[in-house]
């Protein structure tokens, strides 16, 4: 619908200005990353540094339209589903790194939420075959 309206506006002689998507502030990114680190630490699942979480989350957020807290919520949901499935090695950091790596740098600022579900299905399939524990 939005694309149709944009095309109609352009073809009718109107000037359309497309504003760039906002880039989350570094403090917002770090706060969301550290919230995920705290969850992993509480479960005894990480020995990674705070910087590792900051870097992974910044890489993910740089490619996503969603704001940091939405991405954090998706990461929490993905880890909870994987743990319920029996995963013993998935942490918020591994999930965030995998999602960031799965998104092509050629397509920046995409909607990242669907990638969390894809990753969960991938891990579930791998666990089913014994490839991932």
Give a quick precis of the structure.
The chain is an all-alpha fold. The chain has helices at 2-11, 26-42, 50-61, 68-85, 92-102, 113-129. It is 64% helix and 0% strand.
Q: What structural keywords apply?
A:
about 130 residues
Please state roughly what percent of the residues sit in beta strands, choosing from under 5%, 5-15%, 15-25%, 25-35%, 35-45% or over 45%: under 5%
Net shape: globular
Output the structural class: mainly alpha
Describe the sheet with the most strands. none
Average pLDDT, rounded to a whole number, is: 84
Low-confidence stretches: 1-9
Structural Rg: 18 Å
Helix content: 55-70%
Give helix and strand order, one letter per element, not per position. Answer: HHHHHH
Oligomer: single chain
Total number of strands: 0
Query: How many DSSP H or I helices?
Result: 6
What does this structure look like?
With about 130 residues, the protein is mainly α. The protein contains six helices and no strands. Helix 2 (about 25-40) crosses helix 3 (about 50-60), helix 3 runs parallel beside helix 5 (about 90-100) and helix 4 packs parallel to helix 6 (about 115-130). The longest helix has 18 residues, at about 70-85.
Could you outline the blueprint of secondary structure elements for this entry?
Layout: H1 2-11, H2 26-42, H3 50-61, H4 68-85, H5 92-102, H6 113-129
Helix pairs in contact: 2-3, 2-4, 3-5, 4-6
